[in-house]
Amino acid sequence: MTQTDLTPRPALFLDRDGVLNEDPGYVYRVEDFVWIPGAREAIAAFKAAGWWVFVVTNQSGVGRGYYTEADVAVLHAHMQAELARVGAGVDAYYHCPDHPEAEVEAYRHPDPPRRKPNPGMLLEAIAQWPVDLTRSVMVGDKDADLEAGRRAGVALGLKFGGGNLLEALLPFLASRDD
Questions:
Q1: Helix boundaries (H) for 11-53
Q2: pTM of the full predicted structure?
Q3: Which residues are catalytic?
């Protein structure tokens, strides 16, 4: 966590797979990561407008034993390095490896509070950063993403159906700017 200005500002909460990167299923290796068109530029635009940007991603592949939390950290570090090349960055990454049917016992929970549609990851970000919920947005490709945002008190949820993320979000950014 590196915030220095404690003035509340809006946050862009982003699901990862299907919003920031193509989602063929259980993406965890750098060599399998492919950005959605306009994703890096969208993050750069929101950062330039003074927004917090958070990634909130279910990662049941960890609980299923397909990959590790260290693999998730490596992929998120790769994303951050790629974003730095366009003058952007994510303020914090949150992931939930828990799943009701996890193969790995440590990650098995009947209703994981951090796993979307539950709001735990968003609530964690809101507790750690000065977020203006009245101007914030949750962007996801599934109803569970939007439900998590609603339960966390995020003002708006936008369902991303594919295409260019920057083009999808720019009209929203313009309408939310002060």
A1: 39-48
A2: 0.95
A3: 15, 17
